[in-house]
Amino acid sequence: MIIETSNYNIFLTSDEISSFNEKIKEVYQGRKIFVITDQIVYDLYFETLKNSLKDFELFFVISKGKNFDSYQEVVNKLFQNKIQKNNLIIALGGGVVGDLGGFVASTIFRGIKYVQIPTTLLSQIDSSIGGKTAIDTEYGKNLLGSFYNPILVLIDTKFLDTLNSREYNNGMAEAIKMALLSNKELYEIIKYKEKLDILEIKKTIEYKKLIVEIDPYDLKERRVLNFGHTFGHAIEKTANYSVYKHGEAISYGMLVALKIGEKHNITNRFIYDDLLNVLKTRKLIETEILEYDIYKKDVFYDKKNESDGIDFIFLEEIGKPKIVRMKSEDLWAEL
């Protein structure tokens, strides 16, 4: 099925990776394609992708994260293999590869065409959609980046068959977040569901697409998608991106947002209690409370933190997010 956006199409299918060749030929008439991926995805899908994209000459570049060092290493390898402005980049992998690949595409030659092929649930329903690209810095997550749309997103749910339960639930955290923001009925359907079907994946993509098209540059409405991310990113950063997966960190972050919302009489207590049980059942969290003070410094570097405060995302009720500009000191006073 095709999900149309104002800038590119999202092709969503199941077990049709062989069709990717024709889909790419519709938007790219060249022959050379540079595939940015990681070692795990390369080992799993090198032969599959090579056989699928039979009309193209593929050059694979293995990345090792999304910091400045890995960015520079990938760019150097692309130049060593004589990449040109009219070639195509494919970002094949999860959110880390997608963010890095998009950022490389947006900066090399001041912009080169690229295609997203996300292989994890998190990247399929979230990070591959919306044109955000970024790498991390020593000061925080996604602080160096750009808005740069792919020319095509190719999503095949067959990729999800190789994910272990922790990685799948990592993506489910983002799906649950989308449902909390958008639709109580969807939340009730998916909150304990072991695996999403293709129509449920489509619904989460369509919600993000809707918000992105209202506010493509993250100036106001799109910020609701950062529900749980203010503390979530700080948790990831403090743990040096090695303890928590992104979905686990934002799970704690969503609970923090709900707890602060209760204290401001914005959020009903039942949402916190229900989500707490869901996240524990899915093993996305282990304990209810973290030591918040250790994250204070890293919250300061949140992208939504501006001179007059930080835009914090609350839930008035399921399906009704609210953005509130808060002073940093007021935010900490509520914990």
List strands and helices in order, with pairings:
Layout: E1 2-4, E2 9-13, H1 20-25, E3 32-37, H2 39-52, E4 57-62, H3 68-80, E5 88-93, H4 95-107, E6 114-118, H5 121-127, E7 132-137, E8 140-147, E9 152-156, H6 165-182, H7 184-190, H8 198-214, H9 229-238, H10 246-263, H11 269-281, H12 296-300, E10 305-306, E11 309-317, E12 320-326, H13 328-333
Parallel strand pairs: 2-9, 3-4, 3-5, 5-6, 6-9
Antiparallel strand pairs: 1-2, 7-8, 10-11, 11-12
EC number: 4.2.3.4
Keywords: Amino-acid biosynthesis, Aromatic amino acid biosynthesis, Cobalt, Cytoplasm, Lyase, Metal-binding, NAD, Nucleotide-binding, Zinc
Pathway: Metabolic intermediate biosynthesis; chorismate biosynthesis; chorismate from D-erythrose 4-phosphate and phosphoenolpyruvate: step 2/7
Can you summarize this structure?
The chain has 335 residues and is α/β, with parallel strands linked by helices. It has 13 helices and twelve strands. It has two domains: 2-162, Rossmann fold; 173-333, Dehydroquinate synthase-like - alpha domain (Dehydroquinate synthase-like, alpha domain, Up-down Bundle).
